[in-house]
Amino acid sequence: MSKKVYVAGGGAAGMCAAVYAARNGADVTIVEKNTRLGKKLSVTGNGRCNLTNLDMRPEYYNKAAQGRMKNWLSLYGPEETIKFFKSLGVIVKSEDGYIYPVSGQASTVVNALINELKRLNVNVITESQVKAVKKAENEKSPYVLVTNKDKYEADAVILALGSLSGAKSTMSTGDGYYICKQLGMNLKDTYPALVGFKCEDDGTMPDAGVRAAARISFYLGDELLTSESGELQISRDGISGIPVMQASREIIKFVSEKKPVVASVDFFPEYDEEDFEALKRDMYKLRDNRTLEEFLLGFANSNINSTVLKKMKLSPAMHMKNIADSMVSCILDRYRDIRFNLKESYGYIQSQVTTGGMSLGDIGDDMSVVGFPGVYLVGELLDVDGRCGGYNLQFAWTSGSIAGTAASM
Ligand SMILES: Cc1cc2nc3c(=O)[nH]c(=O)nc-3n(C[C@H](O)[C@H](O)[C@H](O)COP(=O)(O)OP(=O)(O)OC[C@H]3O[C@@H](n4cnc5c(N)ncnc54)[C@H](O)[C@@H]3O)c2cc1C
Predict the structure, then answer these.
(1) What is the whole-number distance in angstroms between the Cα of residue 254 and the centre of ligand 1?
(2) Which of 95, 260, 337, 405 falls 20 to 30 Å from 378 in CA-CA distance?
(3) Counts for the chain of helices (H) and strands (E), in that order
(4) Cα–Cα–Cα angle for 380, 386, 177, rounded to 5 degrees
(5) Do 77 and 147 have their domain in common?
């Protein structure tokens, strides 16, 4: 008799687990709260789905997970992921190591997984909310999966219930944390991550959105928390973009605790001190009868210029001939250290991932729950989060494949 495996949650990790369990001969059912499978997966990577990354390292994940990730990634990493998607008919391409489906459509990935589930006769129950996993008295089917509509006897249960991150339509309501706590598991504090931040409104934020290459460093008092480079986005109320999202995993706890975290932005990251001094000397030559605004016109984006002047309380109409050399030097230096005080993150709905989750201390190497043989946890429900760039989906595929295989045996 084939094993009866129930997968709670039909997102990336749940669908992957279901495919592996069914390919191994198990009788698999997915129970999904949403109207269809893979809702969040279909909006990943700006609709292009960054499946994984060829530059895969344990240190790109949270500290608590790095030791375990080393082992798990050695079992199932980017190479296995690419092979898996090829087996579903999804050809991928690399953009500097970032792996996407050639189609450029996340829907290709979702539909290929759904087609494979159909081909493997996996039963899919949608619009059904899992409420609990209970031990059954029945030796043959040791677990009961309880939903808002029914109860199902199972040999194995894979909990793939996701996190709190993502738009409301993705149903990321953190149900899994409550269900796992009922099993006596430990929950590590959760925070939104891969997210931007609102800044204190001191009247100096740009009037219109700005996108610019920058290096951004985050400080708690004098302590440097982390630095990232990339395309920074500044809007009227806050900062975002890839470097901010990457840094968010390191700073979110402090910001959430209302600690004074400051972002210092360098808009000339490619210049060393000597190059920048040379640039300044060239700029001094433009000190004729221009206004300060005219002088700065080609130095940076006009919205950045006005933010710098507002921060320094200088009028753009000032005449350059009335500004001393030392002051011009100060103004130009400011482009390497523009400071913003962080107020709060944009929250779970705007975030791509949740840091924290169910403790890995309660999980075996095959993703099974200690003390509950036959119950497995996969994906973002666990205390595993990675950098932006395909690392979070890689964990969905890694954990899903390991648990799906183990549950079917
Ligand atoms: C906008 C956005 C873009 C992203 N882009 C990328 C990217 O390009 N690359 C990358 O690596 N990562 C990306 N991520 C992160 C990635 O999508 C997640 O890490 C990944 O989807 C997690 O997979 P999961 O299966 O654990 O959770 P999910 O995909 O969230 O799946 C969980 C499923 O469980 C269901 N569910 C929840 N509660 C219940 C319940 N009680 N009963 C039944 N079902 C339930 C949900 O409806 C959902 O279908 C992105 C995230 C977001 C929000």
Answers:
(1) 25
(2) 95
(3) 12, 20
(4) 25
(5) yes
Query: Which residue CA neighbors atom 6 of ligand 1 most closely?
Result: 44
Percent of the chain with pLDDT over 90: 93
For residue 9, which atom of ligand 1 is closest to its CA?
34
Q: For the chain, give the mean pLDDT.
A: 96
- Is the Cβ–Cβ distance between 53 and 97 less than 8 Å? yes
Residues 184 and 325 in one domain: no
| CA–CA gap between residue 402 and residue 405 (Å, rounded) | 5
Residue owning tokens 């640039």: 279
Q: Residue 327 pLDDT > 90, yes or no?
A: yes
Q: If we measure between CA atoms, which residue out of 143, 69, 9 comes closest to residue 360?
A: 69
Cα of 12 from ligand 1 centre, angstroms: 6
pLDDT at 139: 67
Please tell me if the CB atom of residue 52 comes closer than 6 angstroms to any atom of ligand 1. no
Does 29 sit in the ligand 1 pocket, CB within 6 Å? no
Q: Is the same domain home to 49 and 141?
A: yes
d(CA 13, CA 40): 11
* Final residue in a domain of this structure, among 345, 374, 389: 345
What tens digit of pLDDT does each residue of 223-263 get? 999 999 999 999 999 999 999 999 999 999 999 999 999 99
How far apart (Å, rounded) are the C-alpha atoms in residues 212 and 234?
Answer: 9
Separation of CA 15 and ligand 1 centre (Å): 11
For ligand 1, say whether the CB of 49 is within 6 Å of any of its atoms: yes
33 lines ligand 1 (CB under 6 A): yes
For 284, the domain range is: 197-345
- Residue pair 29/150 in contact (Cβ under 8 Å)? The answer is no
